[in-house]
UniProtKB/TrEMBL annotation:
Coarse class of the protein's main subcellular location: membrane
Protein name, as recorded: NADH-quinone oxidoreductase subunit J
The species this protein was found in: Planotetraspora kaengkrachanensis
Domain of life per record: Bacteria
Reactions that this protein is recorded to catalyse: a quinone + NADH + 5 H(+)(in) = a quinol + NAD(+) + 4 H(+)(out)
Keywords, sorted A to Z: Cell membrane, Membrane, NAD, Quinone, Transmembrane, Transmembrane helix
Length: 268
């Protein structure tokens, strides 16, 4: 009685999670639904007196493979639009063929299990489920077991080769980045130093008030150009801000760039 109740409850849960896995638009949600399906299968294995399969289902699939898949999705990120782009030509056709073949194989397996009684199960489990299963794996089916292990290793190596990307140019070092900043400073007059550090502060919590550096001078990076043009037109532009804008205009003329008069709007 308890086995039947457990089966029907987990059947509903696993089928619902499987439908969520297929129809979910987000890859992270699909991965979570896959974890629910795997956990439900582990409980069903345990109910059917297969503790080894239940432990493997939780430790290997749910605990290792599934969580690794989920963490990769969370770190890398997958947009829902990416899944609509076909990277392999004809993959939909072959996916439909593989799905039909799997459905036929699944139907044959279910029909064989329903129409015929299991044979040799009591004999195979005479010494216990786990010892008997280990004996069959490492004696009778050891070749197939090793071939499957080699196949999984080959698949992992293939995934690493496909995901590896060669650089078209060497990665710039800190010295190269520093030299590039000073080259831009010589060509465009841009400050090669970093942005103002934590010592920068402002006396007003407003966008029209520029920030002050630790020495009390105005930080050019904090000057709002839109507000400055408006204040220049109204004649209320602070002298220190006006001096900074004039220095920038002179620098632009020196570098061969056309500087717009202060107060002139875009397109006017």
């Amino acid at each position: 009685m308890g086995e039947s109740i457990t089966f029907w409850v987990l059947a509903v849960v696993s089928v619902t999670a499987a439908l969520g896995l297929v129809f979910s638009r987000r890859a992270v949600y699909s991965a979570l639904m896959l974890g629910v399906v795997m956990f439900s299968l582990a409980v069903l294995y345990a109910v059917q007196d297969a503790p080894f399969l239940a432990a493997v289902q939780i430790i290997v699939y749910t605990g290792a493979v599934m969580m690794l898949f989920l963490f990769v999705l969370m770190l890398v990120g997958v947009d829902s639009s990416d899944s609509l782009v076909e990277t392999i030509r004809g993959q939909r056709f072959w996916a439909i063929v593989a799905g039909l073949a799997f459905a036929a194989l699944l139907g044959l397996g279910i029909g064989n299990a329903v129409l015929s009684a299991p044979k040799g199960l009591a004999t195979a489990n005479q010494a216990g489920n786990v010892p008997s299963l280990a004996e069959l794996i490492f004696t009778r089916h050891v070749f197939a077991f090793e071939v499957t292990s080699a196949l999984l290793i080959t698949a992992a190596l293939g995934a690493m080769v496909l995901a590896h990307r060669e650089r078209s140019e060497p990665k710039p070092t800190q010295k190269d980045l520093s030299r590039a900043r000073f080259v831009r400073f010589g060509q465009l007059g841009r400050n090669p130093g970093p942005l103002p550090g934590p010592g920068t502060y402002a006396r007003h919590n407003a966008i029209d008030m520029p920030a002050l550096l630790p020495d009390g001078s105005v930080s050019p990076l904090s000057v709002n150009r839109v507000v400055a043009r408006y204040e220049a037109a109204e004649g209320t532009l602070p002298p220190e801000v006006e001096r900074i804008l004039q220095e920038e205009a002179v620098s632009e003329r020196t570098n061969g760039q056309t500087a717009r008069p202060l107060g002139e709007e875009d397109g006017k």
